[in-house]
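job 3f2a | input accepted
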Amino acid sequence: MPKLKAAVIGAGSTYTPELIEGFSLHSAALPFDSIALMDTDPTRLEVVGGLAKRQLEAGGLKCELELTTDRDRAVDGASFIFAQIRVGKLPARILDETIPLKYGLLGQETTGAGGFMKALRTVPVILELAESIYRNGADGAWLINFSNPSGIIAEAILNRTSLNMVGLCNCPVNMVKEVADTLGTDDFTYEYVGLNHLSWITSVVRRGETENLVAALSGKAGASMKNVPAIDYDEALLRAVPYIPSSYLSYFYARQRQIDKCLAAEKTRGEICLELDREMMRRYADPALCEKPPELDKRGGALYSTAAVSAADAILNNKNETHVVAAKNNGAVPFMDDDDVVEVKCGLGRDGARPQPVKVYNEYVAGLMRAVKAYEKLTVRAALEGSRDAALAALMAHPLIGDYDKAAPLLAEMLEANREYLPGFFA
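job 3f2a | predicted structure (427 res):
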């Protein structure tokens, strides 16, 4: 068999031990001969890489492990590249969360103005990674991206390159798991539609039955993500949009309540994550630790490795099984353009993701998805062209912003705060 290599870009992340655990647990399906861990921060790489080495040894995995700060070297000959980068690290996230609040707008890592700024920093770096894969990757190499904002990155890669790529998020797999936990069984079919962090389960039917249980489950199941403050929904709201929403939809359903929660909080989520990150790195440095510590679950990455490893398994072994991933629409969602990247159920195998037709939706879903898709496309253009005009248009298109008198000064302040990461906007 040909050699099988995995590269992890952004391997200094505290999430890496979860991914390594997934590789160990599924080594029969994914028999990697070598794993390259790459990060621009050599100190973090050494600490996380040390734990990864101990994990592999404890799991009896006989594969070569390389630590490198050289991206080209990491992807050279790789069959799968797992990307989990955070440009600007957590201090940049904290700015993303705090600056918008000064203008009465939501500060959040992946949506609204915060997610917009993270996209401006991240999209150009992901495109550089794509070029590196072209230069050095093995024929047919696959990029599996978990970097946020995942949907916007998938929009950029799938429409601006010819790279083999799957955009992943742990939100869909957690949503389906919560439905299963609520029903007490996983013997059901479901329908799913949306964009990344803007998605709904629209149908849940027990196998062999015909009744759609989604209305009864709405408000009781979904994805309760640790990084999203919980919101209770009125019955009237759940009747108006009678689907199971991802937790990120609370920012759209109850935006002022979520803004108020952010304003009242002693610390931003980014500040909390920074404290958790420091504690995790302290734990990872312990030479006696040889497994993923349970404290990692507090970071909100539940089932991250499940989604990543199962996607790679489906591609490598041509399973053609169903996964919810980001893919070009190609007619699956009738109210979206063919080249719009959507998050839907797909058949996943050696030829990539093939979106399955979406049968259930309503006008609210269609309108919100189209508005946010316009924002995503403008954001990609702004990120790659360094265009302030496209950036302002993106903020004006976003349903959580849309006010010029707030968007214009907000954009100016956030660009200035991120000047070192956005040279294209200051040329």
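job 3f2a | The radius of gyration is 21 Å.
job 3f2a | closed
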